[in-house]
Design a protein that fits this description.
This protein is an alpha/beta fold. It contains 14 helices and twelve strands. The strands form four sheets. Strands 1-12-11-10-9-8 form a six-stranded parallel beta sheet, with helices on both faces. A two-stranded parallel ribbon has the order 2-7. α6 crosses α7 and α13 packs across α14. The longest helix is centred in the middle third of the chain and has 24 residues. The radius of gyration is 22 Å and the shape is globular. The chain starts with a helix and ends with a helix.
Length: 409
């Protein structure tokens, strides 16, 4: 990692601008709005945008100056925060620090899963390696390798360049979901998993037991080696879209070393949308519950419709706080079941914003329908899974404006 005068100048300018944005009073107002929602005492619906793949349209490769891979990533992060501040205008606060993650490598399960892609982005085909029962004997728990020296070098370099302008710290997740079923289908195949639940349930149970125990071992290792980071701050990502700001975490006996019980966690099972509630409970939820109940607060769901699973999810996860209501979920049923006992994390259909032409009037009307259905709920509206804006940088901000109009009408 090296930096020239031009790169240093650009990074310092961006860091200074981000520090100025983070110091504005509106950031505190936004943070309190999020904390109120997570405490189930909302002032109004929280409106958030996570562009994800759509960042390619908002902060383009051509705008980046740094050539070093690490510094280029830092530059991109700083520019994304500034774009959010200048052009999106949602309720997401701007942080007063730059978070860098641990440099880690996680092995496979002892079996390689070949993938074939037509292009760099988009769908792919994979060849599940567990073809028969005998292949289960080849599975191995994953190993986690931490490069503390490389992590320290990255932190030191960032602090050397702009540490006097913007705080630099190690912060960020080492995994996303405790869902397990993505790993299941990568090992066994999506269609085959569906057949197995009927034809060979013992095989599914053996695979899910292995995956549960593997994830538990990873969590044990992260705790023991002090690699976990708190995710309860105003700008910490929580669940499948949302912010984790809360004073209910860390746990009361927190002494400085982060444990699972001091954090938010997420579980979901998007791969089993075609599975009924009883099979979902038997083959999926029972294996997720011991993992997610290790955590202080829990989120459930992503893109899958959870309306027919809500009774099971709320029954088995006592510290559940946030539930994802996807575009394929019955919004009215979910509203009636959740009430003000949980955060109703509504995800509008991203295709409506990502289409070549956007029907803004229709999008605003759909939002008004959600507002009407959720008047007795603790609501956030989260635009995510937007993998293109067709080069139109105004779309995230226009969606925020439309959502605001819908919530005040």
């Amino acid at each position: 990692m090296s930096t020239g005068a031009r790169e240093r100048e650009v990074l310092r300018r961006l860091a200074g601008q981000m520090a100025e944005a983070a110091a504005l009073p509106i950031q505190t107002e936004r943070a309190e709005l999020v904390k109120g929602l997570n405490s189930l005492r909302p002032q109004r619906p929280v409106i958030l945008v996570f562009p994800e793949g759509g960042w390619r349209d908002l902060v383009t490769e051509e705008e980046l100056v740094c050539q070093d891979e690490f510094l280029r990533g830092v530059e991109q992060t700083l520019r994304c925060w500034l774009f959010r501040h200048d052009h999106i205008g949602d309720d997401h606060p701007i942080p007063d620090f730059l978070g860098l993650r641990w440099v880690v490598e996680l092995s496979d399960f002892g079996l390689v899963t070949p993938q074939t892609r037509v292009e760099t982005l988009g769908s792919y085909h994979w060849d599940p390696p567990v073809k028969r029962r005998e292949d289960l004997e080849k599975l191995r728990f994953r190993t986690l390798t931490v490069d503390r020296a490389a992590t320290a070098r990255r932190v030191e370099l960032a602090r050397d360049i702009f540490g006097d302008l913007l705080r630099v710290e190690i912060r960020g997740a080492l995994w996303w979901s405790l869902g397990l079923t993505h790993s299941l289908i990568m090992l066994r195949g999506l269609d085959q998993m569906m057949y197995d639940m009927h034809d060979d349930p013992e095989l599914v149970h053996r695979l899910m037991t292995f995956l549960r125990d593997d994830q538990a071992r990873i969590l044990d290792r992260l705790e023991a080696e002090n690699l976990l980071c708190l995710n309860n701050g105003p700008t910490d990502y929580a669940g499948s879209g949302g912010l984790g700001y809360t004073d209910e975490l860390p746990a009361a006996d927190f002494a400085g070393q982060v444990r699972c019980q001091d954090m938010w966690a997420l579980a979901e099972s998007q791969e089993t949308v075609g599975v009924g509630p009883a099979m979902f409970e038997e083959f999926v939820l029972r294996y997720q519950v011991p993992l997610i109940n290790r955590f202080g607060l829990a989120c459930y769901g992503c893109c899958e419709p959870v309306d027919k699973r809500l009774d099971l999810i709320t029954k088995h996860i006592p510290r559940l706080r946030r539930i994802s209501i996807s575009p394929w979920c019955d919004r009215q049923v979910a509203a009636e079941k959740l009430g003000r006992r949980y955060v109703y994390s509504w995800k509008p259909n991203p295709a409506l914003v990502c289409a070549p032409m956007v029907d803004w009037a229709g999008l605003e009307q759909s939002t008004r329908e959600t507002v009407e259905a959720t008047r007795d709920c603790c609501v956030e509206m989260v635009l995510k899974d937007t993998h293109t804006f067709h080069g139109d940088k105004s779309r995230p901000g226009r969606w925020v404006q439309a959502a605001r109009r819908a919530t005040v009408a």
